[in-house]
Amino acid sequence: MSETKTSTVAAPGAVITYDVRQPETETAGDQPMLMLIGSPMDASGFVSLAARFPDRTVVTYDPRGTGRSTKSEPDSESTPDQHAEDLHRIIDDLGGAPVDLFGNSGGAVNALALVAQHPDQVRILVAHEPPAAQVLPDQEQALAGIESIRKTYQESGFGPAMARFIGLVSIKGEIPASFADQPVDPAMFGLPTEDDGTRADPLLGQNLITCTGYNHDFDALRAAPTRVVIAVGIESEGEFAYRGGLGVAERLGTEPVIFPSNHAGFLGGEYGQQGDPDGFAVALRKALSE
User: Among 99, 176, 227, 275, which is disulfide-ready with 265 (CB 3.0 to 4.6 Å)?
Assistant: First the structure.
């Protein structure tokens, strides 16, 4: 078992917690640290994937407002720019050397923001299925659908809003203009039907709108020395985040790389979900070495 050290860094309005797993062997050599990030998913989602890189120093963290990382205003929205600055501070705390970075979902959005703003801190970025609504041909319907999720959350709470969210991200193809008018049944997904009155959920209350509606600086990304690889899951074809990945790759002038499994294909039982962490790790190693 590799040794893990937990540290914190202070940021405006937040205290960020991160973990560093030392390599299990002495063969790490001069390889950069490997950061694995999500949003709003915290470090606990990367246990299986981190274990498949015993030869690398692996860094994971809890984004502000999730897990062990706190915010002074828990109900406030967090933006990709804030997350990018948090990541910048972590890398500085680790010595500032360029890292290799894997970002999934909202973590991919935040990682792209980091590279645009601090390109010298990332050697290779693998951005897996960034849910970037602004690059979709059905941008207006997608953003309207996302806004309907937020409205449902504010009016009815977690269960109905999460059911609507699952409905949106499961659609294969363009988001229909009628999406906001479709009924939702949280019980169908095993979600609570009663409203507990809270509105600080890390996804629905803090990151959903700012993440999916983020306008990426593609000029800065194309000019960065960072090699940016956009990855999408073979089982996700046609879904919102998959299409976001295709759109980002197109704007960067690159071809997306196909990874095994789905949007969370690196999970190995975390949150009760089983992807293909072995195959996913092989694909990630390849993307980081080419």
Answer: 275
Cα dihedral across residues 193, 197, 201, 206: positive or negative:
positive
Structure token digits, residue 11: 């940021």
Q: 113: which 2 tokens?
A: 């923001």
Based on the number of CB atoms within 10 Å of its own CB, is 242 exposed (0-12), middle (13-18) or buried (19 or more)?
A: buried
Amino acid identity of 146? I
> What's the angle, vertex CA 128, arms to CA 122 and CA 134, rounded to 5?
95
**Cis peptide preceding 40, ω within 30 of 0:** yes
In sequence order, which residues have a C-beta less than 8 Å from that of residue 164 and are 6 or more positions away?
Answer: 148, 149, 152, 184
Taking each continuous run of H as one helix and of E as one strand, the counts in the chain are: 9, 9
Of 145, 170, 134, give the one whose Cα is nearest residue 250: 134
DSSP state of 104: E
Average pLDDT of the chain, as a whole number? 96
CA angle 234, 236, 239 (to 5 degrees): 145
For residue 260, give the DSSP letter. S
Query: pLDDT, tens digit, for every residue of 12-61?
Result: 999 999 999 999 876 656 789 999 999 999 999 999 999 999 999 999 99
In this structure, the chain runs to a length of 290
**Residues whose CB is less than 8 angstroms from the CB of residue 26 and which lie 6 or more positions away in sequence, other chains included:** none
Say if residue 215 is exposed, middle or buried (CB neighbours under 10 Å; 0-12, 13-18, 19+). exposed
